[in-house]
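WARN no homologs supplied; continuing
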Amino acid sequence: MRAAVLATLVSGVFLMAAAPAPTNDPYAYMEEIEGARAMQFANDENARSLPQLQNDPRYAGLYADALKIATATDRIPGVYFAGDGSLRDFWQDAQHVRGLWRTTSLESYRAGKPQFRTLIDVDAMSKAENANWVFKGADCLKPDERYCLVSLSNGGKDAVVVREFDTQTGQFIPNGFQLPEGKHRFEWVDKDTLIVATDWTRGEVTTSGYPFVVKLVKRGQALSAAQEVFRGRADDGGYGVNPIVLREPDGAVRAMLVKRPLDTFNAEYHLITPNGAAKLDLPTKSSVQGYVSGRMIVSLEQDWAAKGFKEGDLVDFDLDQVKAKPAALNGALVLRPTSSQAVEQVATTRNRLVLALLDNVKGQVVSLTRGPKGWTQTRLDLPADSTVAITSTSDKDDRMLVSVTSFLTPSSQWLADAASGKPERLRSLPPRFDASKQVVEQLWATSKDGTKVPYFVVRPKDLKFDGQAPTLLYAYGGFLVSQTPSYASTVGKLWLEKGGVYVIANIRGGGEFGPRWHNAGLKLNRMRVYEDFFAVSEDLIARKITSPRRLGIMGGSNGGLLMGVALTQRPELYNAVVIQVPLFDMIGYTHIGAGASWVGEYGDPANPQERAVIESYSPYQNLKAGQKYPRAFLETSTKDDRVHPAHARKAAARLKELGYDYLYYENLDGGHAAAANLNERAMRQALEFTYLAQQLMD
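OK structure emitted
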């Protein structure tokens, strides 16, 4: 199987009724995505803000540098194993800004001169169909992966249309499997059968906009005739039901499961049988990670005291026993991380279980094999003090592809044998900026409750500790997502080379130390996340690395919410705030876009106790007149169907009402990434770093 990022199923409670939309919000009209008033506001704000940045003499150079990096042809291709023994990747450059889905042989790739064959030219297809297609991946039928379900998004939305593609002929299959636009979840069962979760009747979705009914679809069959095999409920939380097919390396199906989310982090797993669905005896805060050597691999994000397992454990189950007695499971411990460790990824090769681990936010990969006495592990010999990610694994053998990256060393790509543990470096990225004058440190701040919080600082070796260094602090702090070192291509060229300092904060809410780090900042404890961020900010100032005049912050999505909290709670600490595709109206968030799916993270405004906490930090409700807010830069995308653009629009409208200076950019495309192609990405980055230079360097 290809590597699967550790699922973010961590603590929370079952979804409660979503809070009703506030009736006294003067900017509620912003929630109509393409409403005339909302779009006029966005266009007017773009016309006001963009010249303030694009007319800056630095902008053109920053854009040129960002575009050169984004479209460089000497990037490392993101290749992955296909079942026929080939490698495939998705590639974008200056001539193919929407991208090419391509294939090549492993032999030619290892030799350094791969001969790629184009499978789909997304630019040409978009032009031919007069559409703004964004390639969202392809799911291919094992073992040979000839037939693929290709997902295409209009402008970058999460919702996709799905078409069946034949990689041998290079053509979409006439009258093949097709799904209309929607937030589908699907898997191949065999060449003529899919298991699909979708809105079978338009609008038949959960309160957060995701499907909850699963059916089997036969080739040539109308969707209306599909056979239902599982049904959740319309008030289920999370991201919708998700079918899972466990297979042998030869493609033979061993089991079909359905994951039914109850909220953001709680879920049930059901085994699909000829007699209906049978619920598995698993904690609701757990995740089925894969299948290898007859064992179903499960990660636990809560203690399972009755079975002797702890939060963070990796456990395996004999799949035959699971199928025989789904309501009475008995597992065995695979791995128990230490207090400084976290399991970041779980993947399988033909015969091996492979894990990417963090230890004090530094990566490693271990390979495990199961024998009569249980699992034994071997650590792969890869560069230390880096982020190490499993990018692909092979079902044909025990090989895998691994990426290694750190702040100042160009990223590299490795081919490793999980059985022998021997890695071979395939590619290294050429340097994108001059890192010779930089150094990386890992420092620790003390949060309000005494918790030690690590953060990385990338700074000049000869930094004068006088508080005058322009410093950009980035953080996320949610959904078990870890912030780990990665090669700072764009930041290096657009910021570090200009004399700036770059900081990544590993605050609670993330997964840097496993589920406990995430659980510590959920719902009623949300302020711990923000207190961690403020502690890192204050530590940077106390060490005289920077000062409030020179300290800027950046974050997107959940990190955009963090930026809004920082703006309204501690504005005296910062002179620049980049708020990317944010949540902002946390009292109304459950009825905006996909917001109801995040109740397990933030809590429900309909619950009085949880509402009291949310009200204490919700940026939209906490914007006030007469404050010394720094001039903020808000960014969003009209096509973002995950975090609705209304959040950023409302924030800007309220700032305008209160008389504050701010900047606003709404990309008409781009989805949750706020950029649909490489040109748009480079533009966004150039805007951001022009703003940061104005606020922190001038």
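The chain has three domains: 1-12+249-430, 36-68+434-697, 88-141+144-237.
OK
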